[in-house]
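Quick one: structure tokens for this chain, please?
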Amino acid sequence: MVETVVSVGLAVGENWNIYKNRIQPPVLYGNEKRLSIVTGVHGDELEGQFVCYELNRILQENIEHLKGIVDIYPALNPLGLDSITRGVPGFDIDMNRIFPGDEEGAVTEHIASRIMADISGSDFCVDIHASSVFLREIPQIRMSEKRADALIRYARLMNVDLVWIHESPVVLESTLSHGLNSIGVPTFVVEMGVGMRITKSYGRQLTDGIFCLMKELGIWDGETITPKNPMISLNRKLGLLHAQKPGIFIPLVEHLGIVEERQPMGQILNPLDGSVVEEILSPISGLIFTLREYPVVSTGSLLARVLGGEEV
């Protein structure tokens, strides 16, 4: 059942509409748990679109196994999706920096407030993002250290490759996930793939994990997979590689590959004179969970992240 979450009039007779699709059992008893799946808060992140499609398809084809309510919000920033813009076009704002919003505030703040109100009361929320157009990420869940104790057991069900637990910078306090956690809706962020693209294998992997979460919550009683046992970043070494020189980055390794310390990971080339201006070596041994997708780099551009073993 498609519902309008919020509708705001724009110039030249247009409307800013945000929709959700609510899927529920034919008969409700009043005690059903509710899961919210949100994506599209950044208009250049499309990986979640395929996940929404798959969830809709599987749930509707197997409605007899659905024991709770699933709300699917495929486009929290529809203007950004339509224009392939990360932020909200015409407002010069990152939508994921204005939550929890303000019902009486500016247009974007009003919309953020209505989104929060609509998701409020959910028993869990999964906020799906993709990487930028520059980097490819393995399917991972990111959460602050402050929220880890409450969320980690659910994150282990999500069939992702990595759970990245990090300290919470101040800027994250204005994100949707922080806002929902603050009002008692357990929420974590999924990052995967690359911007402006859809990686179907990642989408299917995450969809399988969402059904495992649904089973744990008592929302689904159909078959589920045995989810992957993710790597946990806490107390592990993290190697970051940044370009020291501008040029064209050519990787010598594969995403999700294993590297040894000091192993060559790529080169930065100068197409003008045919020279190699920088050799990129891994600072630690471990797994490549982030790898640059876009070849043109400037000084300081992130090239890769490597997750190593336990800190000594």
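The longest helix spans residues 200-217.
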